[in-house]
Design brief:
The chain is of the alpha/beta class and 335 residues long. The chain has 14 helices and 10 strands. It folds into 2 domains: 8-246, TIM Barrel, CATH 3.20.20.70; 254-330. The model is unreliable at 328-335 (pLDDT under 50).
Length: 335
């Protein structure tokens, strides 16, 4: 699969953009674990053009992350064009436009998936961003606003006509948020539309290597984007890539998985500060499959998620790794 001149190889697996998740450290780890391309957190066009420090920091891309895309969102043409130019100056490989975020604070203001209620404006923003930058421009969106307005097959053609060089489709409507099952049949319909010539990337409910392969085989997509299944489990890309290659899933020791989580903690603290860095990483600790299914783990889990100093958190993780995880009769190591 190619996006412009960027060759991502056959059946690439991409890390989805996720707010408060796909920070610099996590993106780098996912690339090391096999993700073929990574995306930044959502970057607000309005905040970029106001030069907000916290937003500007989202544009920093380390050499080991590449190829990487910066994803921007906004609700006006001028702001999105200026934001795209600012993002281009950070030298990503791709500029991605977010027309898919369903959360109220974004979509409710007309940005993200909110654009699915204003297709003319969505298309105008896309055309003008494509004109404004020399990098490949891609779009991520959803099937439509709600069940009665699943417009993605027609919309995909319109977005392609605007000059984008790849399209990612999340298999839900905005109204579904993240509920229910992702509908890949419409993603497949876009891919199988003979008028479509750009790469189509599918997204939604790809949580296992087996499901990943099924999506490639059944729907014919050019790439698959993985989001929530990677939270607390960046090694999922390693598992998925190996399964695609030879049908096997690597046995990754829990010590190696814990080392990756500890690395995220350290890098989060170093990047932000101790208190906020620990708060930021709690989402990964809460979601990680390494610590699921463990017998009588509730109190330890609560303590881990309430720890507010690095020393306290490290001591709890030492206890988990030394005294709990080795006792395989009392726990289930998620693969």
């Amino acid at each position: 699969m190619k996006i412009g001149d960027i060759n991502l190889g056959d059946k690439p697996v991409l890390l989805a953009p996720m707010e408060d998740v796909t920070d610099q450290s996590f993106r780098l780890i996912c690339r090391e674990q096999g993700a073929d391309m990574v995306y930044t957190e959502f970057v607000s066009a309005d905040a970029l053009i106001r030069n907000i420090d916290s937003t500007m920091r989202k544009l920093t891309i380390l050499p080991g992350e590449r190829p990487a895309a910066i994803q921007i969102y906004g609700r006006t043409v001028d702001a999105m064009v200026e934001a795209a130019r600012i993002a281009e100056a950070a030298h990503p490989e791709v500029i991605d436009i977010n027309f898919g975020c369903p959360v109220k604070k974004v979509a409710g203001k007309g940005a993200g998936a909110g654009m699915l209620k204003n297709i003319p404006l969505m298309l105008e923003i896309t055309r003008e961003v494509v004109k404004a930058v020399s990098l490949p421009v891609t779009v991520k969106t959803r099937l439509g606003w709600d069940h009665d307005n699943k417009i993605i097959v027609e919309l995909a053609e319109q977005l392609q006509d605007c000059g984008i060089q790849a399209l990612t489709i999340h298999g839900r409507t905005r109204s579904q948020l993240y509920n229910g099952e992702a509908d890949w049949t419409l993603i497949g319909a876009v891919k199988n539309n003979p008028r479509m010539t750009i790469p189509i990337i599918g997204n939604g409910d790809v949580t296992t290597p087996q499901r990943l392969k099924e999506c490639f085989d059944r729907y014919g997509v050019d790439g698959v984007m993985v989001g929530r299944a990677s939270i607390g489990a960046p090694w999922i890309f390693r598992e998925m890539k190996q399964y695609l290659a030879d049908g096997s899933i690597p046995e990754i020791p829990y010590q190696e998985k814990m080392a990756l989580l500890r690395r995220q903690i350290a890098e989060s603290i170093d990047r932000i500060d101790e208190r906020r860095g620990i708060m930021h990483i709690r989402r990964h600790l809460a979601a990680t499959p390494v610590l699921k299914g463990i017998y009588d783990f509730r109190q330890t889990r609560i303590a881990m998620l309430r720890a507010d100093t690095r020393a306290e958190l490290e001591a709890i993780l030492d206890h988990i790794e030394r005294d709990i995880l080795p006792d395989t009769s009392r726990q289930i190591i998620a693969k």
